[in-house]
Amino acid sequence: MMDNKSPLRRYFEQFRFVFLTIFLFYMSMILLDYYSVIKENGFSLKPFKTNGANHHDVDNNNNTPITPSIPSLNFTQNNSTTNGVEFNSTEEKQMIPPPPPLIRDNNVNVDELIVTPNSNNKAPPIRNSDPCYGQYIYVHKLPSRFNDDLLKRCRSLLHWGDMCPYLTNLGLGPKIIENAKVLLKDTWYQTNQFSLEVIFHNIMKHYKCLTNDSALASAIFVPYYAGLNVGQYLWGYDDRIRDEAPLALVEWLSNQKEWKRMWGRDHFLIGGRTAYDFRRKSGDFGDWGTKLMFLPEARNMSMLTIETDSYDNDFPIPYPTYFHPSKDLQVSLWQKRMRRMKRPYLFTFAGAPRPNAPYSIRNELIRQCLSSRSCKLLSCYKGKNNKNTCEDPVSIMSVFQRSIFCLEPSGDSYTRRSTFDAILAGCIPVFFHPKSAYEQYRWHLPKDYLSYSVFIPEGDVRENKAIINDTLARISRTRISKMREEVIRLIPRVTYREPRSRLGKIEDAFDIAVKGIIRRVEEIKKEISSSTDNVYYSNE
Ligand SMILES: *[C@@H]1O[C@H](CO)[C@@H](O)[C@H](O)[C@H]1NC(C)=O
Ligand SMILES: *[C@@H]1O[C@H](CO)[C@@H](O)[C@H](O)[C@H]1NC(C)=O
Ligand SMILES: *[C@@H]1O[C@H](CO)[C@@H](O)[C@H](O)[C@H]1NC(C)=O
Ligand SMILES: *[C@@H]1O[C@H](CO)[C@@H](O)[C@H](O)[C@H]1NC(C)=O
Ligand SMILES: *[C@@H]1O[C@H](CO)[C@@H](O)[C@H](O)[C@H]1NC(C)=O
Ligand SMILES: *[C@@H]1O[C@H](CO)[C@@H](O)[C@H](O)[C@H]1NC(C)=O
Ligand SMILES: *[C@@H]1O[C@H](CO)[C@@H](O)[C@H](O)[C@H]1NC(C)=O
């Protein structure tokens, strides 16, 4: 029977086979293009890009340059929801300049290269032969009173406790010993949220493109522990004491030769507290914090903080979490594990009520959680043994890992560290205020905020218009798995690596922050050189 086919028919079948293969190939190319458009734009369906040349870049983990349309959510719906605070979702901040040159483009494994720029040789770096071109950072050698001496006084750094244990392991805190049921071995630490300055500085000490030649540097890092410094004086000290170190710092900086090059506009610092702690306005907050960032010199510098209130030289970056991997593999193992978790709780709230803040929605969230069978409440009261479960990474992570959604309302300020613990656990964050994340972490989190989170306006909760359990239960399973996948993809972006390690392909929160700063300095340079009087920019 097989051999009965006529040669013509066999020829025809072969032809059909070839035709089908080509057809399928073209269909899949078209679908791929379509898919990348969807990925880029959330669910707003746009026609195919006619310029197909672009689609390799689209899904390149690089969220900042993408301009998605923001679907469905309407912040202007009701004024009360934003608490009188304006949120202009169409407003483009100057914060998202184009990315810096990517050194990974030329297939050099930068992590293997030991960079020793010769400071005697002032020849400018050549773009292609130098993998660090455009990425050099010069770290100021500050007098020890601005950093190391603070660590020695760790007992008096916190008003409410002892910071010393948290400053061990290069600022990561004590290693967590656990039977690997909840966490991965060897990558988890009891990290304090105020340690970011120390962690960041220690990662910087191992940054791949450090230089001792400040003329070569794209940006200049000022390793002052601004938050630890002010933390000592927040309660019961006068302004003169609080501002003593900030004033001495800017005096020191402005007397260095690096200052004159751009009047400090290529300098950056990090503050592991909210920006309000460095911008004392008399009266407003009862004279809170220092006036560091209001000093004329500091106005020329950029500051990385964990939360800001829209100053154009503040760039919020994620709070530190407990996870500090040293290898790419540890990150992907953790991501794999979070994908497979069984999540019996629809939602979780880990936090304390704010009984003295009637405007806070926390009390209402706690009430709703307690009356929902699908909610798990992790109460942040100190128990009998004075142990606060909310400060125990194992109990937090074990609950977040088993929850689909994690509620992240504002607390004493708009943002919370818990947001990043939730992302780390693959738990989809639910925000109630745009300043809790969307208006903050523009470098680290996708612009299309509905791709990784749920937004329920604070006002709706306050006015009993939003029933949390109903709202969340109505979200489809497909949408949940898409969001969760996105959250899990974000894990490395909100993680600070073990300071002495270098990751391979993965970019962590530190890498993204440094890239952001370098881009910003590039922008400033362009601005200066394009202005008619470029007297300020001299290379000497
Ligand atoms: C947003 O809400 C306002 C007030 O309800 C309405 O006028 C406006 O059309 C809405 N915009 C969108 C894009 O839905
Ligand atoms: C906004 O909230 C107020 C206060 O509850 C309510 O009366 C009003 O109808 C809401 N407006 C819109 C446009 O939803
Ligand atoms: C929103 O606030 C503005 C001014 O604060 C007011 O004029 C307007 O009526 C408010 N709109 C709603 C829907 O409440
Ligand atoms: C919001 O953005 C629009 C368009 O960019 C602009 O016209 C408007 O002035 C902005 N509003 C605020 C309050 O910034
Ligand atoms: C900078 O100089 C110090 C000693 O002066 C040296 O230990 C360090 O390795 C140098 N760093 C680079 C990146 O050359
Ligand atoms: C800040 O930078 C400007 C130029 O952009 C310069 O004129 C000014 O003197 C600088 N301020 C300080 C305190 O150096
Ligand atoms: C949902 O929450 C409401 C309000 O808190 C509560 O009355 C109701 O019992 C909850 N429903 C379920 C199924 O848990």
Automatic annotation (TrEMBL):
GO terms for cellular component: Golgi membrane. The keyword Transcription does not apply. Residues 132-469 form the Exostosin GT47 domain. It is found in: Golgi apparatus membrane. One of its GO terms (molecular function) is glycosyltransferase activity. The chain crosses the membrane at residues 15-37. Its main location: Golgi. The keyword Membrane applies. InterPro entries: Exostosin, Exostosin_GT47. It is a single-pass type II membrane protein. Keywords: Glycosyltransferase, Golgi apparatus, Membrane, Signal-anchor, Transferase, Transmembrane, Transmembrane helix. It holds the Pfam family Exostosin_GT47. PANTHER family: EXOSTOSIN HEPARAN SULFATE GLYCOSYLTRANSFERASE -RELATED, XYLOGLUCAN GALACTOSYLTRANSFERASE GT11-RELATED. Belongs to the glycosyltransferase 47 family. This is Exostosin GT47 domain-containing protein. It comes from Arachis hypogaea (Peanut).
